[in-house]
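User: My instructor asked us to take a sequence, write out its structure as tokens, and then describe one feature of it. I'm not sure where to start. Here is the sequence I was given:
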Amino acid sequence: MRYFKSLTPGIFRARPNRFLALVELQGELQRCHVPNTGRLGELLLPGAAVWCKKAETPGRKTAWSLLVVKKGENLVNIDSQAPNHVAAEYVAGGGLGIVPDFVKPEQVFGDSRLDLYYEAGAVKGYVEVKGVTLEEDGVARFPDAPTQRGRKHLLALKAAVAAGYRATALFVIQMEGVNTFSPNTPRDPAFAQALSEAAAAGVEVKAVTCRVTPETLSITGEVPVVL
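Assistant: Let's start with the prediction itself. The structure tokens for your sequence are:
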């Protein structure tokens, strides 16, 4: 995935609320949209190097969006929309072990809207994509804040398997330098339990890492999932 315009480097200063960051850009303090509702406490630290994109919508309250943060030697993409785009490319290219005839975004199953639906001959499948920005000692974890919506999606994937569909929970880790993926049990034990139950019911659980630059995000490969 390539962003349409080059990003501008800056220095993170503060996050007054979950949707707003104050970033020093080109010598001026700018109000930037944070396109991620997670806590991001280990990333958005005062003085952190960041990259921001100029808004393309005229008259928007925030003229910039904060998309990339440097953590140690790694860059971490925090754009919550980006994982769905790279996941669609990944699935369409055979990342799930089968090359689909087509991939459609945002398809309804039951009372849930799942991120991707695909068909490959007689195989029909759903994919729910979760972006991951939290890393601890080489382990990527999700979620970084409790998510009832995430648990609902896992129930929908279980129901899809019971109805004869293939179903996948795909965790897109928005960084490199990760060895394994695990649910964040201390932060959201209910989600961790739901993920284990979904896997036992036949839902595939996959985790992939991404190469991040200030202008691109691309999936590089799978890492083991430890439930």
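For the description part of your assignment, you could build on this observation: Residues 40 and 134 are 7 Å apart (CA to CA). Try explaining in your own words what that tells you about the chain.
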